[in-house]
Amino acid sequence: MKIIDTHCDALLKLQLANRGQYYGEHPLTFADSTKLETNLGYLQQGEVMAQFFAIFIDPEVPSDEKWQHALEQVDLFYTEIIDKNPAMKHIKNWHDFDTLREGEIGAVLTLEGADAFGNDLIKLRHLYRLGVMSVGLTWNNANLCADGAGEPRGGGLTLLGKEVVQLNNDHLVFTDVSHLSVKGFWDVMELAKYPIASHSNVKALCDHPRNLDDEQIKAMFNHNGLIHVVFNPPFINKDRRDATIDDLIKHVDYLCELGGVNQIGFGSDFDGISCFVENLENTAKYQQLINELLKRYSEDQVRGFAYRNFLDHRPQ
């Protein structure tokens, strides 16, 4: 069954390896490097039809270097993922999903945290032109747009952050609420035409700042938003670094109970996590999750989770 995955951090790993800061001095090859949980071979084995690739800048990178880091990751997306792998097709607009041929895998650029452009909206517009189709305002820390889930202050969106959401609306770009503070989340709900939680789980099942509580979940569904479950064990089971596929499916069950059967998807966070769901350690294993879901849900519902819900709720 085809899969759309709305979050991975392969670009960061490729960048760090290119800079000699990850796995020694040797760059990683996207086609087959086993140091990547999201490589071409794994995507093909897992029957992934589209993979979203996040631009993520580590908070420790000095402010005056963040834009350069972002451009490096965009360059790697083009040179190492698109140009060297004919099966990978750059998704530049939402209609491109409909033109993917058998054997082709869509590649989508996203931005995880506004740190890359600071308060320079010209840079943000450049990112739109380069193909960014989903923007998360924060990672866990605070920036000039909003507070993240790990910022004790817990502030909401700044005036700049609200302007970014409006620009996302104007450009048919998702505003991603994963990693936002609670107040930031509610600010986005007031403004965003296209909200998504690209990689978040259920707080009632796992009390973690990165997960969404019941009221947030209901608000997302009421605003035609998507919630894509994440495969990181600490977001599945509280205070644990292990999880089973059954544990992950409990989050899907809960979201369905809150009315989201047609608004659920997957956002693995592969290459951004350090522990894994048993038998779901990379994108090659995706069909194991599908097989377990088919024991509990109809084929039509599972197709929704896997890819169709996303296609039905993409910006138009």
UniProtKB/TrEMBL annotation:
<dbReference type="GO" id="GO:0070573">
    <property type="term" value="F:metallodipeptidase activity"/>
</dbReference>
<dbReference type="InterPro" id="IPR008257">
    <property type="entry name" value="Pept_M19"/>
</dbReference>
<dbReference type="Pfam" id="PF01244">
    <property type="entry name" value="Peptidase_M19"/>
</dbReference>
<protein>
    <submittedName>
        <fullName>Membrane dipeptidase</fullName>
    </submittedName>
</protein>
<dbReference type="GO" id="GO:0006508">
    <property type="term" value="P:proteolysis"/>
</dbReference>
<dbReference type="InterPro" id="IPR032466">
    <property type="entry name" value="Metal_Hydrolase"/>
</dbReference>
